[in-house]
Amino acid sequence: MDAKATVDFSEGLILVSGPVNALRYISRIPGAKIRRDNVWRLPLTLDSCEELRMQRVPLSPELEEYAGRLKRIQRYIEHVKVQDGPVEPLQPIPIKAPYSLYNHQIKAYNIALALFGRGARKGAQTGSTRGGDAV
Questions:
Q1: DSSP conformational letter for 22
Q2: Lowest-confidence pick of 7-16, 35-44, 90-99, 120-129
Q3: Which of 112, 116, 108 minimizes the C-alpha distance to 132?
Q4: What is the predicted pLDDT for the residue at 132?
Q5: What burial letters (b/e) apply to 11-39, b meaning 16+ CB within 10 Å?
Q6: CA distance 134 to 4
Q7: Closest Cα to residue 7, out of 69, 74, 60?
Q8: Calpha distance 21→43 (Å, rounded)
Q9: Alpha-carbon distance 30 to 90, whole Å?
Q10: Is the pLDDT of residue 40 over 80?
Q11: HSE of 84 in the Cβ direction (CA atoms, 13 Å)?
């Protein structure tokens, strides 16, 4: 296929260009919009990346990296949700000393840290500062 997908992080979009007849299926992807220059704009989500992969649209290296990071975050969130027993926060929780949190609140805190790229485990090396690297 002659189509290609690139990413625009500033707008939070995936841009897909190529021959019009090769891109007919993209209109079925939720949130897809076409510009006047026949470039499709898709939301920058894991679902959009997976749909493009299923249609065999090559993703740019930075989009591949971002999709991989989203996939790792998604796996981590699923792991946290099903975790039993006491849960340790990934980072110190900014609350006053006489108060403590329930397990489900600590899980939610850990998920929020992962989603916003601040979830580095104690002593972990992250390598980059873009959202979700630490998970």
A1: G
A2: 120-129
A3: 116
A4: 43
A5: eebbbbebeeeebeebeebeebeeeeeee
A6: 29
A7: 60
A8: 21
A9: 34
A10: yes
A11: 0
Pair 32, 52: CB distance under 8 Å: no
Name the amino acid, one letter, at 3.
A
Q: Examine the pLDDT at 105 and tell me if it is beyond 60.
A: yes
Cβ neighbours of residue 68 closer than 8 Å, sequence gap 6 or more: none
Residues in Cβ contact with 14 at an 8 Å cutoff, skipping those fewer than 6 apart:
5, 6, 7, 8, 41, 42, 43, 44, 48, 49, 52, 63
Length of the chain: 135
The residue extents of the domains of the chain are 4-59, 60-135
Count of C-beta atoms within a 10 Å radius of residue 64? 15
The CA distance from 41 to 115, in Å, is 23
Region of 115 on the Ramachandran plot (φ > 0 left; ψ -120 to 50 alpha; else beta) = alpha
